[in-house]
Amino acid sequence: MSLNKEKDFGTPAKEADTLVTLEIDGFQVTAPAGTSVMRAAAGIGIDIPKLCATDSIEPFGSCRLCVVQIEGARGMPASCTTPVAEGMKVVTQNPRLADVRRGVMELYISDHPLDCLTCSANGDCELQDMAGAVGLREVRYNPQGKNHLQAVKDESNPYFSFDPSKCIVCSRCVRACEETQGTFALTIDGRGFDSKVSPGQNEAFMDSECVSCGACVQACPTATLMEKSVIDHGTPEHATVTTCAYCGVGCSFRAEMKGDQLIRMVPHKDGKANHGHSCVKGRFAFGYATHKDRITTPMIRKSISDPWQKVSWEEAINYAASELKRIQAKYGKGSIGGITSSRCTNEETYLVQKLVRAGFGNNNVDTCARVCHSPTGYGLKQTFGESSGTQNFDSVMKSDVIMVIGANPTDGHPVFGSLMKKRLRQGAKLIVVDPREIDLVKNSPHVKADYHLKLRPGTNVALINALGHVVVTENLLDEAFIEERCDINAFAKWKTFIADPRHAPEQTETITGVPAADIRSAARLYASAGNGAIYYGLGVTEHSQGSTTVIGIANLAMATGNLGREGVGVNPLRGQNNVQGSCDMGSFPHEFPGYRHVSDNETRQLFEKDWNVILESEPGLRIPNMFDAASDGTFMGLYVEGEDIAQSDPDIQHVHHALRSMECVIVQDLFLNETAKFAHVFLPGSSFLEKNGTFTNAERRISPVRKVMKPLAGYEDWEVTQLLANAMGYSMNYRHPSEIMDEIARLTPTFAGVSYEKIDQLGSIQWPCNEENPVGTPTMHAHEFMRPNGKGLFMLTEYVATEERTTRMFPLILTTGRILSQYNVGAQTRRTDNVAWHTEDRLEIHPHDAEDRGIVDGDWVGIKSRSGETVLRALISERVQPGVVYTTFHFPESGANVITTDNSDWATNCPEYKVTAVQVSKVTQPSEWQKQYSDFSKQQLELLEQGTHHA
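Above: the chain's sequence. Below: its structure in token form.
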């Protein structure tokens, strides 16, 4: 299998209604107006030499290698910057052009190291290729003349090297940083011969604003910017296209291999979600897949105080099944359950919920979406009829006003964040609703929020109602849309409700802390936009009124007619790679795949017939119910695939007590994570690089996950679940994940047209995909909503203050979030060089609050809530407002969830991570919980080391 590099057409493709026909080297070519001569030529297989041009960025025309001759035109124009014209006649090769190109190349080579045989880019260097293409055989210039050959390397970045001695100052890296990433971290410093690429103000890469997305590395035509993995191990030999297993963007990558070793991940240009871009996690942080901490042998033990015994797969599976059957015989059918993962594939998740329903005989299955986006599922299902976002990511490029609520796209969804910034640089307006000053508020001179509504945590509903009040009372409604597309009676009730003076910005100002004038201006801006789009995240859902806020957002979009076309919509930014898919696959205790209630007789009978088993009609236990029942002694067995509930769930001390109370906890994962420390059976998992399947991203895009290396433990995750099902007495006999997807399609209307064959043909598919939408649905609700009557449903959204209030004892509000370099509980990213950017969770605190408490930057501070106490180092920051503190949750020893409470959303039990009343004070030692955690964790690692092979 060869590497099969993606073709570079030199300049980006252009879309135009007008087609232009011209002649290139005697061949007739037709291309969209605006297309460059270079791209038009490449389209028919004529590759004009180039160095400064690449099809991921706009043409620059600086290298002069791509010159051509055009009949009737003077001189030799650059083909990259010359657009096609009707009747144009182009010559790309003749002796005169060849002489000019050789002369240009000679100048480049005269100031370039001639170490091709030992260069890391040997065989993968565009400068080398172009020297051959133009026929350069000698360099006449004195090699002892002035040059840059002694320039010092910058090795500061853990993932790539910067060798300025090999730089040809083509500016491709600078333009990629500007156009693709939107960070503007690189510049061309100096003029003429003194020109050089400079990170920041002549800083090292790690000291600059560089976010290590890799766009510059990918754009570089030489070995100037080169992955250290390539320098260390050589150039890859073959590649497989797969999908990233980090955030909900779902970037497509070429996993480039050398034998069975992964050398680098290169963003796939045809990836519909990322279009050849990436972030530091997807591009570089893949080392966890082969980390020394990987556990590849099954293990069992009677008690969590016993050493682990390494056993065969057969013994581990049989032991797990016998324990689950023993528990059911002793405590009843409903005494066991399962938790699916938003990091596993659709097929694996589907099998886990099928195992629980058909093999365990109950509906006790839930997923981590419970603690992140379950309010999205509820709120959008009620109002629009479907539990998903409405647009594809590219839709943002047609938005006129973008409202970001409770999300931080540049950190949590960085590739989409870059796309959004691109649209903002083109002139779209931005409204940010967030208690904290995220990067988008004032990212750079090129991106700045028009309004930052800096609300108090927990007051989302009051703010959304105030926005709706302005829309209604100032007659900013889209009456035609409402009349045609929405339930009129429900709208009338909502209109009366929202017009009540108590929802006026002047009345809510004391609740939200946001000036009434700002709310009114923001509402007018959004409602008056040609296209207004809303993007939201966990800052909306992880509240006691998370579902209410989602409903309020849906009301606002319907009231202004911002649905059903490109550039608008309601778009939840899903946190993990397959949160959408885990919900689609029926991971909730009340829903079968496709969001159909378990009590619906017709749906249940469909699954009963296909699965050949009688299914329960009553919903099972949600995750919080499982923990409560475990503490009560009625829920005693749990199968957890790919989730770390002992770190990620709220009120951790309650979670740990529940896990200790169970008689059999089965964990299937890559590492001995926090949950596995409470486990009795450990089944080794497989990383995304070791399996076949699909992920569904935040835009409903079903993308292929393809195996690039053999599973280190011998099995893909779906195979392990199948083994457990068979041992439990419920037969599963799939030979490949494609057969699982065929079953999903057979039983799930929105997936009816999905197959591996179609995914391979199209690259990816956005559901619904069925007879009406055979190639998928980029924009939802284009003609009618997916509710039974086809009409959007307005719902009343009464603001109910959270029970979590500040007091004299707990005067501050803690809220939580993520950071760019780390991912979720950190199990993956902490085992990569991403720790170079973020080595610990820190507590952001406003200077005024810090001064009141005698806290200076870097001090150890205790954070105490009614649930518990932990200790972090302080980070003095004006990004948070007075009265609010903020932290991340990527390191287990931080204990961020020791202090979060058991408050949850009224409809879905989604925890209220974003509002915890706390006190902060200087301390000199870790909290009692941290001491206990340290001792327990040390003990568990020792028990792992003491593990023996069972004869």
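The chain has 30 helices and 37 strands.
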